[in-house]
């Protein structure tokens, strides 16, 4: 670190402090927001996936506010006065800062507080007080105020992400002025525990907000979820100012008539619905509508364009992958049965479904608009090449959430880069067929379990016979 004068000449350095939850998505979220707000951000040090602290540069503090007012991964943003690889190094740096800026921060009219935080290693209260007293040389003039000080400083020691064997000395040490917190409070505010209408497929609120950020939803955007279920993805889109539309093949789900998913609830309340959730969160003004419809037979006007499509299509595990259809050939319904006819459903192959989703997005997204969707994969087989792709859609983010030893789902973000040619739209999309293998493997693991159980039974029986013989 240079002196404070050097520091001012450079872009200011900031510490982005992240929550250690859903860490695979944090970089994608921040990069989407950086692109949404056209922010210039440089990494001073390239962070690893697990690292909750990023040292970055921004051109000005307004950008920090823009980012923090949208990010759910971000815990806090701190203007870094200095940082070092050792405690001694940090204090040496700080002692050289005798400029007006530091004096200004410790002005006699301003109250302050220094918060000591350690990450990855536990320290007692008195050990933390000792760390605090090491700052006695700072030119404080103002009063210490523990609640709502004018300036809040953070001193942070980072010991890595494995608290079971932390190093003796910290890897990184930071000191800076707190600026703003991220939107972590939304995780609690939108908790499923207190949400009126939920189902088995409702998305965790943090992931929903991450998706809306990756989709770069902004005020006035038109947003669609074509597999809307209980509408959890649309809540976050509406919160960021999007106008929301949803469709789902499941009539009972959209009408809040499916079996309640809360164990404590025997029957659904009369008014459970996606709209009721919007009312609960005071987002009713953003709600356009939800409709029962089969995505395999979409009916939208060609001219309708969405700013973003956010969706979690069915994988056939918790919910059926179906579309309207019948295996019988040349099937007709008589006039008298038409009014009461409930159409039959046939299997909607996952490959076909993603093909349709990409085709729909090529056609109905605005240029620059984003499709953010989950895609299930068989981990061993995964390669980027096996992901659905299209000439009109650029894959801009791709992160994994592990579901089991064999499977995971990937959150894919595509950006529309060109309009499709009228004739060759089908040729613009490539989808690998993976589902058969996925299910074969599920069958295999079941079979393996059955064999293991039978073997255990057999061994127990042998032991029992042996004991009997010994007696
Ligand atoms: C994984 S869930 C989506 C959950 C949703 N994000 C939520 O908040 O509850 C997939 C949804 O796709 C619906 N679906 C299945 N096949 C469909 C089809 N052919 N057309 C439209 N929706 C379909 C299911 O009824 C289910 O609600």
Automatic annotation (TrEMBL):
Single GO cellular component term: tRNA methyltransferase complex
GO molecular function: tRNA (guanine(10)-N2)-methyltransferase activity; tRNA binding
First-tier enzyme category under EC: transferase
Localisation: Cytoplasm
Organism: Agrilus planipennis (Emerald ash borer)
Major localisation: cytoplasm
Pfam families on file: Tmrp11_N, UPF0020
Record note on quaternary structure: Part of the heterodimeric TRMT11-TRM112 methyltransferase complex; this complex forms an active tRNA methyltransferase, where TRMT112 acts as an activator of the catalytic subunit TRMT11.
Function: Catalytic subunit of the TRMT11-TRM112 methyltransferase complex, that specifically mediates the S-adenosyl-L-methionine-dependent N(2)-methylation of guanosine nucleotide at position 10 (m2G10) in tRNAs. This is one of the major tRNA (guanine-N(2))-methyltransferases.
Coiled coil: 444-471
Residue ranges occupied by any Ribosomal RNA large subunit methyltransferase K/L-like methyltransferase domain in the UniProt entry: 194-323
One BP term from GO: methylation
Catalytic activity reported: guanosine(10) in tRNA + S-adenosyl-L-methionine = N(2)-methylguanosine(10) in tRNA + S-adenosyl-L-homocysteine + H(+)
Domain annotation tRNA (guanine(10)-N(2))-methyltransferase TRMT11 N-terminal: ranges: 12-183
Name of this chain's protein: tRNA (guanine(10)-N(2))-methyltransferase TRMT11
tRNA processing is among the record's keywords: yes
The encoding gene: LOC108737209
EC number, UniProt record: 2.1.1.214
Family: Belongs to the class I-like SAM-binding methyltransferase superfamily. TRM11 methyltransferase family.
InterPro entries with a match to the protein in the record: DNA_methylase_N6_adenine_CS, RlmKL-like_Mtase, SAM-dependent_MTases_sf, TRMT11, TRMT11_N
Keywords: Coiled coil, Cytoplasm, Methyltransferase, RNA-binding, S-adenosyl-L-methionine, Transferase, tRNA processing, tRNA-binding
